[in-house]
Automatic annotation (TrEMBL):
This is Uncharacterized protein.
């Protein structure tokens, strides 16, 4: 009986884990996001958006139509965690109501607190690996006028975009220490709270 119980526990655990990072689950969040962005000028669209993204205070475009060009689950620097990346061609409007065709990059992660995929970033297409390299160079650039905590925070953001979650955690903590030492009361690391939902920092430290 004990052997059967252990086997069933292993089977359920394995099944649950495999469910967490299935491509179709991430795809559903993308589909729902695009639907919300079609009606973003309505209260219903804003209400839908809140449930689909980590930070609903960020700016999102109204999307009249879209075409998926590429998508995949990608590995991160934490073995058991994967991210989702999609490249889309969208039709939107400029501030002057001029029709625009743009390529947008979407990055999503599983929210471990809620066990559902959420959008981390939806922005015009950019090379995230290159941005990580630029941000690292910025840490030692004497011509960069930004305070060190803001440079570190920027680097951590791009590292999350690029799947470098452990490095992002370390740089957010360094940024917080820099801000504390400088008595920078305006410094905000809300994205660190998002990172906690993705990697579960306390559980990670206990491993």
């Amino acid at each position: 009986m004990k052997i059967i119980t252990i086997f069933l526990f292993f089977l359920i655990t394995t099944f649950s884990f495999s469910q967490e990072y299935k491509l179709e689950d991430a795809q559903k969040t993308t589909t729902d996001l695009l639907q919300a962005l079609k009606i973003l000028d309505l209260p219903e669209g804003k209400e839908m958006l809140v449930d689909l993204v980590f930070e609903s205070s960020k700016s999102f475009p109204i999307v009249s139509s879209s075409n998926l060009l590429f998508e995949k689950l990608f590995d991160t620097d934490i073995e058991e965690i994967k991210g989702y990346k999609a490249l889309l061609e969208i039709q939107s409007l400029s501030k002057a109501n001029t029709p625009l065709t743009l390529r947008y990059l979407l990055i999503s992660y599983l929210d471990k607190k809620e066990n559902k995929w959420k959008v981390f970033s939806f922005r015009e297409n950019i090379d995230t690996e290159r941005e990580v390299l630029y941000s690292k160079k910025g840490l030692t650039d004497d011509n960069d006028s930004r305070k060190m905590q803001y440079r570190l925070r920027n680097l951590a953001y791009w590292q999350i975009m690029n799947g470098e979650l452990l490095d992002a955690k370390d740089n957010y903590l360094k940024a917080f220490k820099e801000a504390t030492a400088a008595e920078d009361k305006d410094f905000d690391i809300s994205t660190y709270l998002t990172l906690d939902k993705i990697i579960d920092i306390r559980n990670l430290q206990n491993k």
